[in-house]
Amino acid sequence: MKRLQNFYLLSYRLIGFIFLVSLITSIFWYGFSVLFFLANTHWSTPFILSPNQENVLVHQEHLLNVQQELLKNTAELAAAKNDLSNKEIVVKNAEELLLRVEKSMEQQIHQDTQNSGIYHALTQEKQANVAELTQLAAEIQMKESIINQELKVALITKEEALSQHLMLSNLRSALIEAKARMHEFEQRAADFGAAALTLKGSATSLAAMDKIVKKIELTRQIAQLKSDIYALKVTIEHLLNVIKKRSEVLALMKKSPYILATKEPTHVAFVPYKNLPQVKIGAPVYSCYFDMILCYQSGSITAAYKAEEYAKHPIFNSDMKGQFVGIAFKDETDAQKKLLFLGSKPLLI
Fold it and tell me: Which phi and psi (to 5°) does residue 307 adopt?
């Protein structure tokens, strides 16, 4: 019985001693870990990014949206360039037509001015002719009285009197026709003169105004086309900038570990900002059997990603900011370790 009591007492003391040693060891290890993580700048935490992870799927969707927008912008750019080319051809043809219209108007002004002068001269000639015929008409009127008197006294026959009356009637008709032609010449001279003045900028000929209106309409169309061309050039410049920026974004996104993980699992390590100076492409990566002791080289750094990432501290469980680095492991099971060390072993062990 006494032996049993001694055994229980010894067991109790042994258990208490083990518990105390474990507690002291745990406190010591925790304190050591706190000091270690405050002093060491080579540690990082590994992650395995797989195609089914939420962040990977979100980044993939975002990549597809950017690609779709880029294709849309490219199509818009092609359409804008085609529209610009067509409008430039139309403007060129319209400007050539406007030039021809202006030359035609100049020639028309010259022609109308000449025609107006010609008809003024013809009018003056007709005025002289009308004056002569008017004088003859007065003489005719006197001659008719004489013919009638000679017919009464039988100095001439009725046939002779009728012949002379017919001749006098023809003279009166010629006078009327001459006056009508003179009026026509006057009107034509006025019309050509008015047309020439209208084409020069006045507004006296309604017929010539039609050409002015057509010229103004053509000028307005050219101005509108030039305005459209300017707007298209601004649109094209904007689209080129948008396409350039989106292409750069797309190139960066394709290098993202999340996009690489859409094809196959990708190994990365989260590095806090204070540890980033230790990151060098090609630097060795170390894994340890007991977190930070008995370490061996397990791989190397293959890439450094600039996007900001978030993770939990392996000891304090607090939020941290940092960046991912790509890791190539010799044995992929090392990606499941709690810690990795970049560039050198911790504690040189």
Answer: -65, 140
